[in-house]
Design goal:
Its cofactor is FAD; heme b. With about 525 residues, the chain is an alpha/beta fold. It contains 16 helices and eleven strands. Strands 4-3-6-1-2-5 form a six-stranded antiparallel sheet.
Length: about 525
């Protein structure tokens, strides 16, 4: 599925034929240099724009403390899925034990504490990079999230947290620059590429729709600096995911300097030393969480996988089911997604959900819909053939099954959003569960129900599974109304996958029928950001 939970608009542009590999032939050299050792990843101290240079603090051992920042990488797409918003914010969960292992992660909520205006972007000390006691597969596969983001309605049951002083200053700056967001974006990249031309190759050759994704991810993270549960998972996934771009820790300070430079220029009416200090503190903490996550991940998994296309099955003129064989084991969970790069558009990555549970033969399948101006989706649907080599980023997403409960599953998939729903059904079957699974398969026309035969075969094989097709042009009710018509759903966990509009209406419908927000799972960026605000 192109962009697990949003429409795929992957209209980034980049030069076509060259790049790091030739179609249909596996490359003999790596495209980007792998990040160095954790010790070599420490960036040098920098000063924010307009601030005097100051020596970084020196710890007791006499070594200089390195600085940090957020995304120094080409694109920030999580969600990236043919989605064009920032990198996906995974469905948040209570802070896992892994969060506590990183001082920077633990300090996200405390990053807003008032203090003197710092003059260097200095990260917290590196977390220990020693592997934990868990096995290799456990290290490489994100843990299942049992509690998705709490929603606005849920927040009413708990006292509202007062915004921290830094969060207030950060949001004031963002409100100031909102009317001139395009100018801020252009100026940010102009500063970055003029001052640090060595970073330009990390980005696509053309920056049409790509250009605002990095900045949006940074601003989203800064805006939610008080929301630790959402932010730490988000940033750790960003840090891991940005390894595939060739991003290294020393790239982060440059991004931070140019971010503050752009903000200070366009928020000049409200900008002062106190506001700059708040942004430096927030960015320093944000970047260090990402750096730590990348350093830990480097010990466990490659930055990317090569994968050969083994089958290409056109289902409609604009939808294809593509199966690939990765060059080494690729651990993931049913319901997750990955990022994909094709040989025809180097450095353009888009997210696609896995269309099956993990298979014994190691093959991976994706449902891809070609969309207007979708460079990656059109290449995969209309150009890719068996033998072609693509690259895969790490798995991400928290729309996974909790096998410790006996709750039923209410699964709602729209369009190619049926891909991860099918994977979830297979996952339940493979675990031997006989819990009730109700699938609503939404489509505009019967022509768009390209995988209905597969879903009906699964229904015939498993008496606990019910599949209902809801076709917009034939039904007297829309998909959310159909959900309300069945039920009750109070003993079910809900899973949503499809375009953003369907996610929004689906979440509202599920809440209306009594499903608590913490039992509604999806990977839609827009919904997650709203839920975290």
């Amino acid at each position: 599925m192109d962009a697990p939970t949003t429409t795929s608009a992957d209209n980034g542009t980049s030069g076509g034929g060259g790049g790091w590999f030739t179609p249909r032939k596996k490359p003999t050299t790596t495209p980007d240099s792998e990040p160095g050792t954790p010790e070599g990843r420490r960036p040098a101290a920098i000063r924010p724009v307009g601030r005097p240079t100051a020596a970084p603090e020196t710890p007791a051992d006499g070594t200089a403390v390195p600085p940090a920042s957020t995304t120094g990488s080409a694109s920030t797409g999580g969600p990236e899925q043919g989605r064009e918003p920032p990198e996906a914010i995974p469905t948040p969960a209570p802070l896992a034990a892994q969060h506590a292992s990183s001082p920077a992660a633990a300090s996200v909520g405390a990053a807003s504490s008032a203090g003197p205006a710092p003059t260097a972007l200095t990260p917290a000390p590196f977390a220990s990079t020693a592997p934990s006691a868990t096995g290799p597969d456990e290290l490489r596969v994100p843990a299942q999230r049992h509690t998705p983001a709490s929603a606005p309605g849920q927040a009413a049951s708990a006292p509202a947290r007062e915004a921290s002083p830094d969060a207030i200053l950060i949001r004031r700056a963002m409100a100031e620059v909102a009317p001139v967001a395009e100018k801020v974006t252009s100026y940010f990249y102009a500063l970055l590429f003029v001052r640090y031309p060595d970073l330009r190759p990390l980005f696509p050759a053309a920056m049409d729709t790509q250009r605002d994704r990095l900045l949006k991810a940074l601003l989203t993270a800064a805006e939610h600096i008080d929301n630790t549960d959402v932010l730490v998972d988000y940033l750790q996934n960003l840090g891991r995911g940005h390894r595939k771009y060739g991003t290294r820790a020393e790239h982060y300070p440059a991004v931070g300097e140019c971010l503050i430079g752009a903000l200070s220029k366009y928020a000049a009416e409200v900008w002062n030393e106190e506001m700059e200090a708040a942004w430096v503190r927030a960015y320093t903490t944000i970047s260090q969480v990402m750096i730590d996550a990348a350093a830990r991940d480097e010990l466990r998994a490659p930055a990317w996988w090569y994968a050969e296309v083994v089958t290409h099955d056109p289902r409609t003129p604009d939808v294809a089911v593509i199966t690939v064989r990765p060059d080494q084991p690729y651990p993931f969970l049913a319901g997750q997604y990955t990022s994909v790069e094709t040989p025809w558009w180097p450095r353009i990555w888009r997210h696609y959900s896995f269309a099956s549970a993990p298979r014994s033969d190691g093959l991976l399948s994706f449902h891809v819909k070609a969309v207007p101006a979708g460079w990656v989706s059109n290449a995969l649907v209309h150009r890719a053939r068996p033998g072609d080599i693509i690259r895969l980023g790490p798995p991400a997403g928290a729309m996974t099954v909790d096998h410790t409960t006996e709750s039923g599953l209410l699964c709602v998939g729209g369009g190619t959003g049926i891909a991860p729903i099918k994977a979830l059904v297979e996952d339940v079957a493979e675990h031997g569960d006989r819990r009730s699974v109700e699938v609503f398969y939404g489509a505009r026309t019967d022509h768009d129900l390209y995988d209905i035969d597969t879903m009906l075969r699964l229904q015939q094989s498993h008496p606990w599974l019910a599949v209902r097709a809801i076709i917009d042009q034939q039904a007297h009710q829309q998909l959310p109304d159909a959900i309300r018509a069945y039920g009750p759903w109070d003993e079910f966990d809900a899973y949503l996958s499809g375009p953003p509009g369907m996610i929004r209406s689906g979440v509202d419908a599920l809440r209306d029928v009594g499903i608590p927000s913490d039992r509604i799972r999806h990977d839609s960026v827009e919904e997650l950001v709203a839920a975290g605000s």
